[in-house]
Design goal:
CATH superfamily of the largest domain: Thiamin pyrophosphokinase, catalytic domain
Radius of gyration: 17 Å
CATH topology of the largest domain: Rossmann fold
Distance between the termini: 12 Å
Helix content: 10-25%
Number of strands: 14
Strand content: 25-35%
Order of helices and strands: EEHEHEHEHEEEEEEEEE
Number of helices: 4
Number of domains: 2
Length: 218
């Protein structure tokens, strides 16, 4: 069975599918994300970051319940999300679901999206709920569960996504290369409950602006 870890970040409330929160192997709060984790009723195993945005009373609540605190210097070379994903790898995660708001600085939001698709975390299946949107990092092949008419965009990250093929989407891709900056994969739609996305090499991020259901596991 895959070892699934939840990572909760700062940035305001998120809207995860309730089923997505069930039975994680561990819950990691990235700095101020500890407030959202506690609001969602999640048992926090680790708080990680420089703790510049985590309320001291929330940190004490985690420690009182037996959770650990991994404090990093304020002058650090990685974001709190990146540190949390490192912690997930150290815990042996096969799958990571990141929960985060969509408020705050645009550069932080874009930076975090790029972190999710980083080659550094290619050994884990990475998904996220960022505000109202769901994101899924795709390498090789993945199945997405949606509803006919639901929007989904396929965005290449970090280089060319080669030989992209889709099934179950209104505008099929049939062996096309998607280059960063193209809008070829933007605003597609589900025409079936399950869509399949396959690529020969590269990385895609699937963004579902208003997800209706959680993606199934392979």
């Amino acid at each position: 069975m895959a070892r699934r870890v939840l990572v909760v970040t700062d940035g305001g409330p998120t809207s995860p599918d309730p089923d997505a929160l069930a039975h994680p192997a561990a819950v990691i709060a990235a700095d101020g994300g500890v407030a959202e984790a506690l609001r969602l009723g999640l048992p926090v195993d680790v708080v990680v970051g420089d703790l510049d945005s985590a309320a001291p009373e929330h940190v004490r609540t985690v420690e009182a319940a037996g959770g650990r605190v991994r404090r990093h210097p304020t002058d650090k070379d990685a974001t709190d999300l990146e540190l949390a994903l490192d912690e997930a790898m150290a815990l042996g995660a096969d799958e990571v679901l990141v929960l985060g708001g969509a408020l705050g600085r645009l550069d932080h939001l874009l930076g975090n999206l790029l972190v999710l698709a980083s080659e550094r975390f290619a050994g884990m299946q990475v998904d996220g709920y960022l505000g109202a949107a769901a994101v899924h990092v795709i390498r090789g092949r993945r199945r997405l569960l949606g509803a006919p008419g639901e929007l989904v965009s396929l965005l290449p990250v970090g280089g060319v996504a080669r030989d992209v093929r889709t099934r179950g989407l209104r505008w099929a891709l049939l062996g096309e290369d998607l280059t960063p900056g193209t809008t070829r994969g933007l605003s597609n739609r589900f025409v079936a409950p399950i869509a399949e996305v396959e690529l020969a090499s590269g990385v895609l991020v699937a963004v579902r602006p208003h997800p209706l259901r959680e993606e199934p596991r392979p």
